[in-house]
Amino acid sequence: METLIFYTTAFFILAAAGYVVTTMNIFRAAIGLTGVLAGIAGLYLLMNAQFLSAVQITVYVGGIMVLIVFAILLMPEASMHLRRENPKWFRFIGGVSAALVFAVLAYSITAFIGAQDAAGTSLEPAAASIREIGLALLSPGGNGFVLPFEFVSVVLIAALIGATTIAKRTPNPETKEEQE
Amino acid sequence: MNSPGLEHYLIFAALLFCIGLYGIVTRRNLIGMLMSVEIILNAAALNFVAFHRFKFGGDVAGAMFPLFIIAIAAAEAAVALAIILALFRRKRNLDVLSDNLLKN
Amino acid sequence: MTGYWFLDHLWLVPLLPFIGFIVTGLFLGSSARRTSAWTAIAAVGLSAVCGWGAAFEYFSEFNGEALVTFEFPWIEFSSSLTGNAGILADRISILLVLVVTTISFLIHVYSQGYMHGDRGYRRFFAFMNLFTFSMLGLVLSSSILEIFVFWELVGLSSFLLIGFYWERPAAVAACKKAFIVTRFADLGFLIGLLVLSYHAGSFDFRELNSPDTINHLAGITAPFFGCSILTLSALLVFAGAAGKSAMFPLHIWLPDAMEGPTPVSALIHAATMVVAGVYLVARLFPMFSATTAGIDLVMWTGAFTCLFAALIAITQVDIKRVLAFSTLSQIGYMMLALGVASMDESLGYTASMFHLTTHACFKALLFLCAGSVIHAVHSNDVRDMGGLRKKMPITHFTFLIACLAIAGVPPLSGFFSKDEILAAALHSGEYAVFAIAATAAGLTAFYMFRIYLLTFWNAPQDKQRYDQAHESPLSMTFPLVVLAVPSALLGIVPFSDFVHISELEHHATNWMVVGVSTTLGLCGIALAFLFYFKPNQWPARFAFAFSGIYKLVFRKFYIDELYIFITHKIIFRSISRPLNWFDRHIIDGFMDLTAQSARRLGAWLRKTATGGAQVYLLWSIAGAGVTMLALHILGAGIVVVALSGVGAAAVTVFIFQFTLQLLNKSEPLKRIEID
After folding, report:
1. What confidence tens digit (pLDDT) does each residue in C209-248 have?
2. Short-list C417, C381, C589, CA closest to C489
3. Residue C175: CB partners within 8 Å, gap ≥ 6?
4. C-beta separation of C254 from C330 below 8 A
5. B16 within a domain of the structure (yes/no)
6. Maximum C-alpha span of chain C
7. How many domains does chain B have?
8. What are the backbone angles phi and psi of residue A25, rounded to the nearest 5°?
9. Contacts of B104 in chain C (CB under 8 A)
10. pTM of the predicted model, to two decimals?
11. B77, A64: Cβ pair inside 8 Å?
């Protein structure tokens, strides 16, 4: 059953991702991306990481995706239709490169897993509970993550302010000239 | 079919990562590129969770990093979209190649 | 510290003209003509006062000790070899200080009138002060390294003053010639002093001239024709001395140096700088006299130049050139005198210094008189002059005294010094040298009276010039009269009491020498009267009868042409040209090739740099993929393969470019276009 769910979800995610990177309509790409993110949340669930799954749904699907869709809707004429595509040779090289990277990665993963199995160091499956995550997140010391946690909060604040500043409609002399 | 183990997740993540890579390279639209980046980030986060789940269950770090990745991704998306918006106001399009950004 | 004011402050002697140089050269505007002249004259005058004061103290209190009154360590080469700079007072340096300061002072006064109205008035006085400073520094140097510095400084000031009329191409050519020839000779001096000091372990003259050092040096065999270090360094140092003193075959610059203003010729190219070579040999005399090859070279170079220059002087028509060749001849005398001397029989040494002193007086006087004449008739050519004795009585009279002095007519100064040289030559047993010197003495009398008579007697050749001629102003005639006094009377001074290097010798007067030299001198004068007293056909007939020899001598034995042949045909054509080709095509070609290769590669690579961020990204990902794959499949071998590939590509580009370069198809890199 677990296997079936994994393969189904994986196939769904890959199809959605493929759609995201190939479709000519950016809005549809955004819908595809939502599918990818949701699928990944499903995989988290499959791996007993319920908290992460929830975060993935709320932050990604509920936050970032909404942001992206907003952005798309804000500049419709530039983003609705990807009229121009990169040349074929470009896409070809990109595809070959990506395939190459995948081949190498797959080879490494297989070799790594094989080596691990031979050494017999595989551990029993385990997953951290929400309680454990919460404690680790806020505890100082060797296993604590309070320092990165605080840093992330600072980064988020900075990003918030930065994004507001950048996106603010400033009286731009150049733009005015162009518009005139 | 045996139950999915570490290698399944890893190879799946690698595949996802390469799709994102392909998207980054081929997309000419900035929002398209941003979405590809999100795919790549998710592939990376998936790796963390898989390792945590199947290999280093005792260590909570594997569960922590996806959290941070998501947080950073949120910040990144916000800033990137703001930049894209500003750029769009100036150029009226989002084509990476139309106006060579790094030239001049 | 000696406790005597002037000797303790001997450094003031060179310093004062230096201050004069700085003030006139830097602080005075070019409109301050009178001020600059008087500043320069005052500086040299004060320096002369200090020099005379020091001389009185030295000769009355210290007979012959070498005093270093001021010294400081200058360059420390190693713990055992330190170059000191200092002020050395001994017999010859004090003597030279007297000669240089006095004559320089008089010539400064003279120049004030002579250069009147010249555009470069201030520049002239600045340079003259610079020269005086350099020359005084040279004579007072206490170490061979220090003397070299001043040696080059006098060369520089000579260069500047020969090229004083820089608008004239001849002057420019002359100053370059003088500089290059002497510089070439100085290379020998530099190598010589380095060899010498390295082996002697000291730069100090007192050290270098000590018998221990000389024996030590004589014992070391140089890897050069098997001669000793002593001989080798003596020969090299003499090369420098010969260059500065214009000894054959390096004499070619001196006649051309007459392109400079006449006071310059008088001061630098007659009285002082050109005797620096003689002074240097005298300064290192113990060293030279210890090596047979060195001292013989000095002697024969001197003797040959003496006769050779006298012969040329007979045929020349430019009054200053006659005097220049006369100077060569007289310096030849001094060298010859040094060459026949030895530490045991040092008469020649004394004679040389004596002749240096008297020559400085009468040759400076001759030049100044010539300058006065040139000032009056505006020509250097004796064929434009004639009959000027009535127009210029003072110049005429002083010129006559100088001519009599240089011709060796008793009892004028030249007679004594020249007799002393001849006696020294006879004494040393070098009869050939004696014969040469005596012949040259006769020739000297002849050519000097030739120009004297052509200038002041004979018939006026150019009516217009003759009518314009007038006596020079007081500032010019005053130095003439002052210089005429020592020219006439210096011989009476018991010179050998003051200047000698070993035990004081008193020779009974050698009447044979006196007779020979006086007779030859009078014969020369008589012959000159016969030829040139009144206009007649004799000179032209003689010139015609011996036209071949006359032409040879008139063209200065074709030495200049020989130099031109050697430099142009041999050095330029067979050495410089291949070197030039090599430089252009191989060295430059290599550099151009590198630049061109980089440029072409860059031009090619530039096409890939479109500025599209995504393209960069694509290539970096593709590169990463290929690299990862390669590392996985091939391991470290890929590194070698990749490097070989890149190397092969680079070599191919290189060879391609190189071929283009050699075929001159590729333009040299001139500019790099950036669009």
Report:
1. 888 888 888 877 777 666 788 888 888 889 888 888 888 8
2. C417
3. C159, C160, C162, C163, C257, C259, C260
4. no
5. yes
6. 112
7. 1
8. -105, 120
9. 611
10. 0.64
11. yes
- What pLDDT score does A15 carry? 93
Query: CA-CA distance, C233 to B90, in Å (whole number)?
Result: 82
> What token pair was written down for A41?
């949340």
Could you tell me how many CB contacts below 8 A there are between chain A and chain B? 256
Task: For residue C249, say if its preceding peptide bond is cis, omega within 30 degrees of 0.
Answer: yes
Single out the residue of A19, A64, A57 nearest to residue A40, CA to CA: A57
Q: Token pair for residue C216?
A: 């030590």
Q: What is the dihedral of CA C595, C596, C599, C600, to 10 degrees?
A: -150
Are C338 and C285 in contact by the 8 Å Cβ rule? The answer is yes
Inter-chain residue contact A126 with B8, CB threshold 8 Å: no
* Selection from C587, C600, C586 nearest residue C649 by Cα: C600
Residues of A in contact with C625 (CB under 8 A): 96-98, 100-101, 104
Helix, strand, coil shares, percent, chain B, to 5: 75, 0, 25
Helix (H, G, I), strand (E, B) or coil at A16: helix
Task: For chain B, list the contacting chains (3+ Cβ pairs, <8 Å).
Answer: A, C
Q: Cα–Cα distances in Å, from C652 out to A8, A69, C648, C649, C669?
A: 56, 54, 6, 5, 20
At A24, the amino acid letter reads M
CB A8 within 8 A of CB A43: no
C621 touches chain B (CB under 8 A): yes
Q: Which residues of A touch B45 (CB under 8 A)?
A: 40
First vs last C-alpha separation in chain C: 73
Burial of C117 (0-12, 13-18, 19+ CB in 10 A): exposed
What are the distances in angstroms from CA A125 to CA B4, B9, B57? 12, 14, 7
Query: pLDDT digit string (tens) for C510-531?
Result: 778 788 888 888 888 888 888 8
Segment C538-546 long-range contacts (CB within 8 Å, at least 24 positions apart): none
In a domain, B50, yes or no: yes
**Amino acid present at C207:** E
The pair of structure tokens assigned to C256 is: 């051309």
Subunit partners of chain C (3 or more CB pairs within 8 A): A, B
Q: Which pLDDT score is estimated for C505?
A: 60
CA C315, C321, C323, C325 torsion: positive or negative? Answer: negative
A86 interfacial to chain C (CB closer than 8 Å): yes
Range(s) of the domain holding residue B32: 6-91
Could you give the ipTM of this predicted complex? 0.85
Contacts of A74 in chain B (CB under 8 A): 85
Q: Are C160 and C176 in contact (CB under 8 A)?
A: no
Instruction: Return the ∠ at Cα C443 (arms to C441 and C446), rounded to 5°.
Output: 115
CATH number where B14 lies? 1.10.287.3510
CA dihedral (B9, B11, B15, B20) in degrees, to 10, reads 60
Which of A84, A85, A97, A102 is the best mutation test for C, with the most CBs of C within 10 A?
A: A97
Read off the pLDDT band of C49 (50, 70, 90).
Answer: very high
Q: Is residue B101 part of a domain?
A: no
C201: left (phi over 0), alpha (psi -120 to 50) or beta: left
Q: Are strands C67-76 and C82-89 parallel, antiparallel or unpaired?
A: antiparallel
**Residue A5 contacts residue B20 (beta carbons within 8 Å):** no
